[in-house]
Amino acid sequence: MSFLTTMSASNNAAYSAIKRRMNSPMALLARSFASVKDNASTKPLHAYYPVVPGSLTAHLQLRTGETFTGGSFGATSSSIGETVFTTSLVGYPESMTDPSYRGQLLVFTQPLIGNYGVPKRTRDQYGLLKHFESEKIQCSGIVVSDYATKYSHWNAVESLSEWCEREGVPAITGVDTRALVHILRGQGSTLGSLSAGSQPLEESKIQWVDPNAKNLVAQASTDSVRVFNPDGDVHIALIDCGVKYNIIRSLCEQGARVSLVPWNHNLVDNLASYDGIFISNGPGSPTHCTETIAQLRQAFEVYQRPIFGICMGNQLMGLAAGLNAYKLRFGNRGHNQPAVDLTTGKCVITSQNHGYALDDAQMPAGWDRYYVNANDGSNEGIRHVEKPFRSVQFHPEAKGGPLDTGYLFAEFVDSVRASKAAGLPASQSVIDESATSAQAATA
């Protein structure tokens, strides 16, 4: 039995064991108790925290009929988006500027939000904002239980309300976010309308538009090629599907030269230019990125050097490999998601932000599961059994969140250096052309 066959068998055994534990009576009972209060379903309540003095009344209306009333802060405009929640305790500036939240109303399960204000827009040596994951707020609105009107932090320059108002993002406080999250967990993420005014909007006048019906990746991606750390010793093509700044920074800190390219960049015709390929995170459904999927599918056939994907990158690599993607009921968003490495059996705590996942029930030939979520059993990564291609659904760069898997950036860049040092051609076509030339010379 070969080493790869042994690893594959071990991988499947670990995956099956995790699935069995998740479906055990005690595990199901624990999840049942976690979803009820006093053995009864939680009901939505009106605002119960003092709202911002002198503020307007605000309303969060779900398409399924529930309405939450609170106080308005930030911009007083109206907004519609997919209502999702994050369990992150800290890092609201990073979460709100994460392009993966584009088109979404972001609910914070952490009750106190705004305590440390908003930091200044300082840039690092690569020209990237230190404390934000993009140039602007990406979510369509935020929902909090208790907004801190007075902030305190040595690095803060404005309040959360001032920041939201300046960027035109509406927000609501005083919401029973626990009840709201129970609704979203039960029925799934749903469209919501956030508005300011004495009365909720009339249902018939709300124009419900599902952001996931659009290609949000095309909106979030760069329009042109941008180069970071131009003196790096290896050249990485970073496909921008809505990249977080800390992904760029993490690659640059490993000494790589990074070319940030658009989501639909002509990758195949430029493979020889890159020592490695990296696919970023991004918003919305991966199924809209047909051009990226087609480019990756061709690259899988001929490319010989390392490829790595994160979050949306994991889904796009899976689709290119032949898997399908599906929408999770309420997604995995937060800094406390456990993922099991099926090659080692070790569990790591990860930062995540995604509403879609790969269906890995039947893996295509040549591919294997890499990580699995220890909570819900959803896919957390795939890897090729022979070529240096792999991806993860979570965020090794964190920002915010745990750094348990930050080593994956070093592993990727080191593998790129190794393939370059070995003189490995960029693509199989180069190998074929060399073989043809050699045969012609000896003929």
From TrEMBL:
Q: What is its EC number?
A: 6.3.5.5
UniProt xrefs under Pfam families: CPSase_sm_chain, GATase
Q: What would be an example GO MF term here? A: ATP binding
Question: Which biological process, per GO, is one annotated for this protein?
Answer: 'de novo' pyrimidine nucleobase biosynthetic process
Per the UniProt entry, what species is this protein from, by scientific name? Coemansia reversa (strain ATCC 12441 / NRRL 1564)
Gene3D superfamilies in the cross-refs: 3.40.50.880, Carbamoyl-phosphate synthase small subunit, N-terminal domain
Family under the similarity heading? Belongs to the CarA family.
Major enzyme class: ligase
* Protein name from the UniProt record: Carbamoyl phosphate synthase arginine-specific small chain
Q: Where is the Carbamoyl-phosphate synthase small subunit N-terminal domain?
A: 56-195
Oligomer and partners: Heterodimer composed of 2 chains; the small (or glutamine) chain promotes the hydrolysis of glutamine to ammonia, which is used by the large (or ammonia) chain to synthesize carbamoyl phosphate.
The annotated pathway is:
Amino-acid biosynthesis; L-arginine biosynthesis; carbamoyl phosphate from bicarbonate: step 1/1
Keyword Ligase carried by entry: yes
Q: Which keywords accompany this UniProt record?
A: ATP-binding, Glutamine amidotransferase, Ligase, Nucleotide-binding
Record field: catalytic activity: L-glutamine + H2O = L-glutamate + NH4(+); hydrogencarbonate + L-glutamine + 2 ATP + H2O = carbamoyl phosphate + L-glutamate + 2 ADP + phosphate + 2 H(+)
